[in-house]
Amino acid sequence: MPLTFVRSLMTLGAAVAVLAGAVQPARAADPLAVSVLVPITGFLALEGTAQRNGALLALDNPPDGVTVTYDVADTATSPEVAVTALRRALDRQNPVAIAAPIFGTQMLAMAPIADRADVPLITVSGTAKLTELGHDVVFRFFPTDAVVKVAQARYAVEELGMEKPAILYQTTAYGQSGRAELVRVLAGLGVEPVLEEAIDPGIKDFVPALERVAAAGADGLLLQLHSGPTALAVRQAHERGFEGRIVAGSALHQPTTAALVEPAALAGVCAESASSPVSESSPELAAFAEAYRTRFEVEPDAFALAQYDGMNMVLAALADGARTGPEVKDWLAGHRYQGLAMEYVSDGTGNMAHDAIILCFDGRSRVPAVKKRYDNVNGIR
Amino acid sequence: MVETSLQLLATALALGSAYALTALGFVLIINAVGAVNFAHGDLVMAGGFAAVALAILLPEGVPLPGFVVLPGVLLVMAIAGLALAGVAYVPLRRAPPVSVFISTIAVGLILQHAIALGAGPQPRVGPALVGGGMVELLGAALSYQQLATIAVAGVLCAAVHILLHRTRFGRRLRAAAQDPEMARACGIDLRITVGATFALAGALAGGAGLLLSHQYFVTPTDGATFMLKAYIAVVVGGWGRIWGAALAALFIAVFEVLVAAAVSYLVAEALLYLGVLALLMLRPQGLFGEAEGRRA
Amino acid sequence: MTQRLELDGVTVTHAEGVAVDQASFSCASGEVVAVMGANGAGKSSLIRALAGAEPLSSGAIRVDGQDVTGMRLEQRVRAGIGWCPEGRRLFAGLTVAETLDVAATGGAAERAAAFERIFTLFPVLKERRDATAWTLSGGQQQMLAIARAVISEPRVVLLDEPSIGLAPVVLDDVFATIRRLAESGAAVVLAEQAVPRALAIADRAIVLRRGVIVLDVPAERIDAGVVASAMLDAGSERA
C-alpha cells in the first residue's frame, strides 16, 4: 500500500514538472545573460581579476537597446573548478557568451563543453593549442605567442642588435610554448640563443642563472616569465651590472610588476604586449584608464583592455541582433571590430588579435612608452 | 672564478639564513608539541606582508625602514603564532597528530586567501634593511642588503639560543618539550610554554618573511615554497634537532645556488630531492641524528 | 593527629579495570612507607595518583590535612609533593644544573640556596653539574631524578622503583639517600621491587595485590618471605 502511494506521488510530481516546463516562457525573451568565469584566487589571480574588471567595465556600459545580466564566478587554479563553474553557468544562466579564464589548462578543459553547448568563450589566454583543437567556440582577444614573440624577437634583433641572446623561460606551459616560439622566430632571423634556462615559478634567486648567462657570453636577455620572476630577474640583472639589453614578456607591461622594481633598474628594459593602457597613447585609452582607475582603484593592464574589447565586441554582436550563443559565435567569427587596443578579426580559428607593441622604460618613470608597433604580424588583417 | 663563487656564496647565505630562521621556528613547534605546523610557510609569507604593511605606514624617507619595522613585525607575528596555536592546535591536542596536520593546513589556506583578498594577489616588495650599495670583498661585490640580512638572521638565531640556553624560561621551554608530564610535575604550566613556543615560532617566521620580502618580493602563494624548504631542512638536519634544522636550511640554500650556477636549476632541484631520498634510506635519523634518540 | 600524608579509600580506574582499589593508609613526617607488589599490582598507579598524574575515581588524598585530590599535576609541587617517577624520565638534553634550575622554586636567592642543599645531599651531582643528563651513569641519573623531586623541599616524596637498572654498589648510595630524605622530615612513599633493600630502610611495609592492600605492618615485624607470600597468597594480616 505505501509503495504504490509513493509511486503515484512521483508520477504526479513528474507530470507537474513537465507541465511547468512547457508553460515556461521562451528563453530568448529573457534579458540576455553573460557569464564571467575567471581566476580571482590562486596564482593567476592578478590576471584573472584584470579580466573580470575589464569585462565588467564593458558589460556595465552596453550600447543603447542592449540589456545584459552577468554573473561572476571564480575558477581558481584547477581545471575541475573551471569545468564545474562552466557547467553551473550553462545550467543556471544560459549565457550567450562567456568571459573565460586566461589559464590555458582550464581553457582546454572548458572548450569541449562550451563547444557542445555552442556558447562562445571570450578569453585572453595565449596557449597555442586552444585554437588548434577544432572547437569553434574559442575567441582569444590577446595576441598569441605567434604574434607577440615575433615582436619580442624582432625588436631584440632588428632594433637592439642582439646577436647572442639568452632566454630565461618559466617551466610552465606559458614559458615553454613562448620559448619554442622565440627560438623559431630567432632562427628565422639567423640568430641562435647562447643559453636557454628553465626557471621554476618558485625560484627567487636569479644569480645562478645570471652567472650562467654571463659565462655563455650573452649580449642580451629575452624573458618569458611570470610577473614576480620577471621583476626579480630584471632587478637582479641590474644589481649584477648586466650590460646587455633586456626584452621581457608581457608580464613586465603590467603596472603591478613594474611597481616592484626601482625605475633606475628599468632603464632601457623593454617588454612586448598587446597594448599598454597606462601609456595612454590616445585620448580613448586615457579615458579607459581613468574610468578603470576610478572604479577599481588599480592601474589597468593589457589583459584588462583585451577582455574589455572582447566583451564590447560581444555587445556589438548583440546590438546587431544576435540573440543566442550560436548567433554571437557566428557574428564574432565573421565580423571585424575596432577595439581600443587594436582592430580584431578572426583568422578562422578564433585568434582575434594580430598586433603587438614593444614598450620601453626610460629609467625615470615606471610608465613605459610605446616604442614600436608590429601590426598584422601574421598577415591576417 | 673565486669572485664568482664568493658572490654565489654570499647570495646563498643571505637566502639560506632566512630559510634557517624559518626552519628554526618550524622545528621549535615540532619539539614543543610534537605537531607539524603546516601553516608555517604561510606565516613566513604573512610576515612579509606585515613588513610591507608596516612600511606603508612609515613617513616618506625614513632611513633603514626594514630595521624600523622589524620589532613591529616580530610582535605582530608572535601574536599570529599564538592565534594559530589557539585555533589549530589547542582544541586538537588530544586528537591524533594527523588532525593537527589538517587544521594547520586549513589555517594556512585561510591565511593565504585572506591576504590575497585583502592586499591583492600581486607580488609586493618589502622594506629594505639598509640602503643600496655594494662592498668589495676579495674581489666579489656583495650588497649591503645581503650582508644585513645575514647579520639580522644571525642575531635572531643567537637571541633564540640565549633564550633557550641562558634563561630559566628557556630551560623550562626545553624541559616541557622533552617531557611534558615531568615538566608539569616540576610546576611548569604547559599552556604558557606551548603559547610561548608558538609565539616564538611566529616571530621567527615573521623575521624570515621580512628579510625575504625586499630582495625576493612576497606573494600570497609563496607559503608552500617556504614550507617545503623548512620541512626538508628538518628532515635532513634530524627531526627535532633545533640547530641541525637551521644548519641544514643553510646547507640546502648553498647547495641549490651552487649547483644551479654550475649546471641548472632543474638539476639542482632534482639532486636535492634525490639526496633527501638517499638520506632517508641510508640515514633516516638525519645528518645530526634525531633529538628523541637520546633517552635518560 | 593529622599525618603528613593520608590516603582515604583511593581508587584508580583504567580502561582495563581497577588499578587501585580503596587504598587507605597514612605516612607520617620522617616515615618511609615501602609499597611492594608484583608487576601490575598497582604500585605505579598509586604513585601516579598521589603525584597528580592520574585522576581518582573515588577517595581522597590529604597533605598535612589539606585535601589535594582535585589539584592538577602542575599545582602539586606547591602542595609540597615531589615525584621521582618510574624510569627516571630526566630531561635528556638538559644539564644537571639546568635540570635543577628548572625544578627549583622561588626567587634567585632561594634557588641558589636550594642548589647548595642539593649539592650537599648529592655530592656526585656537584661534580657533574655541567654534564648533560643523558651522559650520566645510571646511578648518577637516579640521583638527579631524586634531586629534581626534592629540590623544592617537598613535604611528601614519592619514589617509583628507583632501583631499576642499577648495580648493587650504587643501590647502597641510593637507598641511603632515600633514608636521609625521611630523616630531614619528609613523608616518603617508596614503591619498590627490591624487597629486602626496601624493607631495610622502611618504617612501614605495604603489599598490594591486584590493586588491593593486603598487608600493612611495621617493617621490622616481617621479612622478604612474608612479603613474597603476601604478594601471591590469599591471606592478609593488618596491624
TrEMBL record, chain A:
One of the Pfam families matching this protein, by short name: Peripla_BP_6
Keywords recorded for this protein, A-Z: Amino-acid transport, Signal, Transport
Gene3D superfamilies linked to this entry: 3.40.50.2300
SUPFAM superfamilies: Periplasmic binding protein-like I
Record's signal peptide: 1-28
Biological processes annotated in GO: amino acid transport
Domain named Leucine-binding protein: residues: 33-357
Family: Belongs to the leucine-binding protein family.
Protein name according to UniProt: Amino acid/amide ABC transporter substrate-binding protein, HAAT family (TC 3.A.1.4.-)
From TrEMBL, chain B:
GO cellular component: plasma membrane
Listed transmembrane segments: 6-31, 43-62, 68-91, 98-119, 144-164, 192-218, 230-255, 262-282
Pfam families: BPD_transp_2 (PF02653)
Keyword annotations: Amino-acid transport, Cell membrane, Membrane, Transmembrane, Transmembrane helix, Transport
Top-level taxon in the UniProt lineage: Bacteria
Gene Ontology biological process terms in this record: amino acid transport
MF term (GO), any: transmembrane transporter activity
Record organism: Thalassobaculum litoreum DSM 18839
The protein, known as: Branched-chain amino acid transport system permease protein
Membrane topology value: Multi-pass membrane protein
InterPro entries: ABC_transp_permease, BCAA_transport_permease
The keyword Transport is annotated on this UniProt entry: yes
Protein family: Belongs to the binding-protein-dependent transport system permease family. LivHM subfamily.
Cell location: Cell membrane
From TrEMBL, chain C:
Gene3D superfamilies: P-loop containing nucleotide triphosphate hydrolases (3.40.50.300)
Single GO molecular function: branched-chain amino acid transmembrane transporter activity
Keyword set, alphabetical order: Amino-acid transport, ATP-binding, Nucleotide-binding, Transport
PANTHER family for this protein: HIGH-AFFINITY BRANCHED-CHAIN AMINO ACID TRANSPORT ATP-BINDING PROTEIN LIVF
Signal peptide as annotated in the record: none
Family matches, as InterPro entries: AAA+_ATPase (IPR003593), ABC_transporter-like_ATP-bd (IPR003439), ABC_transporter-like_CS (IPR017871), BCAA_Transport_ATP-bd_LivF (IPR052156), P-loop_NTPase (IPR027417)
Protein's name according to its UniProt entry: Branched-chain amino acid transport system ATP-binding protein
An individual GO BP term: L-amino acid transport
The keyword Disulfide bond belongs to this UniProt entry's keyword annotation: no
SMART domains: AAA
Family: Belongs to the ABC transporter superfamily.
Entry-linked CDD domains: ABC_TM1139_LivF_branched
Organism per entry: Thalassobaculum litoreum DSM 18839
Lineage start: Bacteria, Pseudomonadati, Pseudomonadota, Alphaproteobacteria, Rhodospirillales
Domain ABC transporter: 5-235
